[in-house]
Amino acid sequence: MQVIEDGCVPVAQLGRYIGMIRTAALVQGLQVVIFGHAGDGNVHVNVLPDLERPDWRERIDGLFGMVNAGVVELAER
């Protein structure tokens, strides 16, 4: 399930951004696949949610919010 389309940060911040994505996924208890155009600081995040969990939508919302906040923070540096 593609959740974050074209999240983009300055290339110098890409490592931090990917770390933020992984941390957010861990906090939310979700598995993610990160791929994209790393050369320009642009990645996509696909989530592999466990649809058997009744709160999977809330977890994805939490991931989205955490990652978007991280993008804003890193873009301002």
Description:
By secondary structure, the protein is of the alpha+beta class. The chain has one domain: Alpha-Beta Plaits. The protein contains 2 helices and 3 strands, in the order βαββα. It has helices spanning 14-28, 56-75, and strands at 2-8, 31-37, 42-48. Strands 1-3-2 form a 3-stranded antiparallel beta sheet, covered by helices on one side. α1 (14-28) packs antiparallel against α2 (56-75). The N and C termini lie far apart (30 Å).
Write the layout of secondary structure elements.
Elements: E1 2-8, H1 14-28, E2 31-37, E3 42-48, H2 56-75
Antiparallel strand pairs: 1-3, 2-3
Tag the structure with descriptive keywords.
Alpha-Beta Plaits; 3-stranded antiparallel β-sheet; single chain; about 80 residues; alpha+beta
